[in-house]
Task: structure prediction
Amino acid sequence: MDLTQLEMFNAVAQSGSITLAAQKVHRVPSNLTTRIKQLEADLGVELFIRENQRLRLSPAGHNFLRYSRQILALVDEARMVVAGDEPQGLFSLGSLESTAAVRLPASLARYNQRYPRIQFALATGPSGTMIDGVLEGTLSAAFVDGPLTHPELEGMPVWQEEMMLVAPAGHPVVQRATEVSGHDVYAFRANCSYRRHFESWFHADRATPGRIHEMESYHGMLACVIAGAGIALMPRSMLESMPGHHQVAAWPLAEKWRWLTTWLVWRRGAMTRQLEAFIEQLNEHQPPAPSP
Result:
């Protein structure tokens, strides 16, 4: 196994095609086919499932892809260290939507100004999706809802979020889930940790949410609540950043459910110079989140 084989493997895994991968790595297709078969023979497993003219990763291929990406990233980092250059290369960061909208803009602006040679990419989505991206190697790190429990991840707490129940204007004060049992709820998809937190709040009080409407943005949720169509849960920092927040009623959840901590997580043993620089930037301007 050598680095060229890993680069070829990554190219085929990304494109699903020998022809397209060959164009990307500037080799002839027959050379890629031979080198991929040699890699499979060396590992003793099939990395791809061949279907007509397409290739898709086998279960073993998915696992190997994680490590091949890490190996190539470490090689790039080693080259930079030896050369004495400032951090450079791709840094892919995932984030909860609320964190990206409210917490990150100033930090990202400082990071981009300080390290102009880093190619920064930001993806947003629910915690479950972001964690999958880190584990698969498509994201260098991600901001997710804590606590950190996955054995393959490392991380640090960064921000503490106060969770607010948002209801139509004029709604009576809500102190317990039973007071809104059966109300329609506006939330993200099922792998959103905030949605699971909201559902747990209902179930702990032996209450049941009404129909759960899956939305793509907090702005959409807020618009539905303003229209009187139901209730939602969102961080206070996000709620107060949006136009129209004064048109709804909002209260923090009971103390046991009130606080959630946002963590920055990365794959165990996969610290890079780009990530180190990002963490230094965070620590300079934002101390770790206190325990609630």
Notes: The mean pLDDT is 89. The first strand starts at residue 48 and ends at 51. Residues 59-83 form the longest helix (25 residues). Residues 93 and 122 are 5 Å apart (CA to CA).
